[in-house]
Write a structure and sequence with these properties.
With 196 residues, the chain is an all-alpha fold. It is built from ten helices and no strands. The chain is globular, with a radius of gyration of 20 Å.
Length: 196
């Protein structure tokens, strides 16, 4: 059941006043939207789940700082996007680690690096619904800056102003990225039909 903004603020006030057990009730309507926002940045389900959990933890810790002039859902999504971007930056840092360097723990013992790939196998991925796969591939083909705008506007249904606030860019840039992203996607698909 959808809550009114006043009901939502009252619930947040109760959580801030010490009724911490109500926090899950306050975030539950937005869990999927927050996850999708993180996934749009990371393009990996496991990483998106981790970033979502971190975002909710950070939201709980910083709930007192929530400014009531924005939507609670927008605030949560912004935290998730920031967490996902931070995670993406950290993960890219390890692409350049030398595999020849010996890693040691605090006691000086050798710790081998874990190079295992824990993602789904190709057969597991193929078992997913065709429509979901096609949608994911189409979104993944967008340039990251366009993909983030697309997810915020077309999947999360955020307004231009809310999208600009979450991504910390101007409203004009949101409009441009939405237009160029759609144009580029349509242009690619029209070229593939002509060459087929």
């Amino acid at each position: 059941m959808a809550r009114t903004p006043d009901q939502e603020l009252a619930l947040i006030e109760r959580v801030c006043s010490g009724e911490a057990q109500l926090f899950y009730e306050s975030i539950s309507p937005y869990e999927r939207r927050v996850y999708v926002a993180a996934a749009s940045v990371l393009q990996n389900e496991a990483d998106a789940e981790e970033a979502t959990q971190e975002a909710f933890l950070k939201a709980f810790v910083q709930l007192y700082s929530f400014r009531r002039e924005s939507k609670f859902s927008t605030w949560l999504i912004q935290i998730a996007v920031n967490e996902a971007r931070t995670k993406r930056r950290k993960d890219h840092r390890f692409l350049y680690d030398s595999i020849d360097e010996k890693a040691e723990d605090e006691e000086g013992d050798y710790c081998p690096k874990d190079f295992a790939d824990w993602r789904d196998t190709p057969s597991e991925t193929l078992q997913r619904a065709e429509l979901r796969t096609a949608l994911r591939n189409a979104i993944a083909s967008l340039v990251p800056s366009y993909r983030e705008v697309f997810v915020m506007r077309d999947i999360q249904n955020l307004s231009i102003a809310e999208t600009a606030g979450v991504l910390q860019i101007s409203q004009a840039l949101v409009k441009t990225r939405a237009f160029v992203g759609n144009f580029g996607r349509n242009f690619k698909s029209s070229r593939s039909y002509k060459t087929a």
